[in-house]
Amino acid sequence: MMAALFAARGGARVTLLERNEKLGKKVYITGKGRCNVTNAADMEAFQRNIFRNPRFMYAAFATLDNQGVMDLIEAEGVPLKVERGNRVFPQSDKASDILSALRRALDKAGVEVRLNARVQALTVADSRCAGASLETGERVSGDAVILATGGLSYPSTGSTGDGHRFVESTGHVVTTTLPALTAIETVESWPGMLAGLSLKNVKLSAFVTGEKKEKKLYSEMGEMLFTHFGISGPLALTLSSLLPEDLSQARFEIDLKPALDEQTLDARLLRDFRTMSRKQLITVADGLAPHSLAEQVVKLAGLSPAVPVNAVTAPQRAALLHTLKAIQLRPRALRGFSEAIVTRGGVSVKDVNPSTMESKKLPGLYFAGELLDVDAATGGFNLQIAWSTGALAGKSAAEA
C-alpha cells in the first residue's frame, strides 16, 4: 500500500495486485488488532532495534521516517497516541482505522486496486522485469514491478512464500528463513506445569557455546511468560530473533531477583531463615516467587519444599540462592511461522540497491517489506521498516 501510494504520488500510473479479498490483512492483526503503527523513538534507537542489516535502511528512513508515517496517517483523519515503550497506536485502538486511512490515500492518488489477483510469476523481457502473470493466465505489464509479498509468518494472511519463489526463479539469493519474534519451546518440561504464569522485572539471559568459550548472546530485564511448551512474552520473543540456527549451542538463565546481587540476596535468605526457622522451606521460597514457581525453584535446587528451614545446610542454601539467580533452561525449538510475528531472513540485501530498493540483478524489479532480510524487535519497528522500504521503492520506481 505504501509503495503504491508513493509511486502514484511520484506521477506513475499504478496497479496494486492483492491476492486476498481485502487489503492489509496483516496490518489488521498487528498489535493484537490495535495496529502498532510505528515507534516514536529517535532514529538512533531505531537502528539499535534492527537485528539484521540496519545500515541497509538509511535511505529508506530518510525517505519516510516514523514522524512521516504519523503525519501521513493523521492527515487522513486518524489521530494517534504514544504508549509505553514509545509504541504508536490509533487513538481508537482499531487497526481498521489505519487501513481506512491508507485506502483513502490510495483512492486520492488514483491507484487501481485489484483484489483476488494472485500473481503466479514475474514477467521478464529484454533482461528487465516487465510485469507479472496471474494464476488466471492474465498478464499484467508494467515498466516496473514492486514486490511486497511479505515473508512466511502468519500464512493465513497470504504470506506463504510466493515472493521468495519469484525471486529465486530470477536468480536472486534468499537467505535462510526462520520464524522470529516467536515463543520458544524448551527441552525441560517443567515450564508446562506453570503455564500461564507471567513474570515481571526478571532478567532473561542467553549464552552460546563458541569454538573456544561460551559467550553471552542476550541479557535483558522485563516480562516473560511460562507456557505449556516453554517460554513466551516480550523477553522470549526478542531472544528468539537472536538465537543461532543450531539451538543446541544455546542455554538460558532466568534471574528472578535481578535487582539484588548474590550477597544481598543471601543476607535476605539468612534473615528469613532465622525468622522462619521452624517453618517449611516452601514458606521462605513463597516470599521470593509466586507459589507454583517457588515450589519448582526449591526442587531445581535439589531440595524438598517440605524440609524444615532449620535443617537446611549452608551448601543447600547456596544451591537455592544460585537457582533463584540463574534458573537453567535449554531451547528445543522455535514455534512455527503460524505464530511468529515476523520472518527472519529473506531476499539478500546484497542483491538490492539500498538507495532505491531496485534489484541489482534484474532492472525494473523493486523490493519492499518483510520479503527483505531485515527484521527488528517488537514495538512498531518492523511495520516502520515496511512503510519506509515501501515508500522508497515506490518513489524510486516512479522516478525511473
Describe it.
The strands form 6 sheets. The protein has a 7-stranded antiparallel sheet with strand order 16-15-12-13-14-11-17. Strands 2-4-3 form a 3-stranded antiparallel sheet. The model has no long low-confidence stretch (mean pLDDT 96). The chain is elongated. Helix 1 packs parallel to helix 6, helix 1 packs parallel to helix 13 and helix 9 crosses helix 12. The longest helix has 19 residues. Helix content is 32%, strand content 22%. The protein folds into 3 domains: 235 residues, FAD/NAD(P)-binding domain (3-Layer(bba) Sandwich); 72 residues, Elongation Factor Tu (Ef-tu), domain 3, CATH 2.40.30; 66 residues, Helicase, Ruva Protein, domain 3, CATH 1.10.8. It contains 13 helices and 19 strands. The protein is of the alpha+beta class and 400 residues long.
The residue fraction in helices comes out at 25-40%
CATH homolog superfamily of the largest domain: FAD/NAD(P)-binding domain
Q: What shape does the CA trace take? A: elongated
Contiguous helical run count: 13
Give the class-level CATH name of the largest domain: Alpha Beta
The number of strands is 19
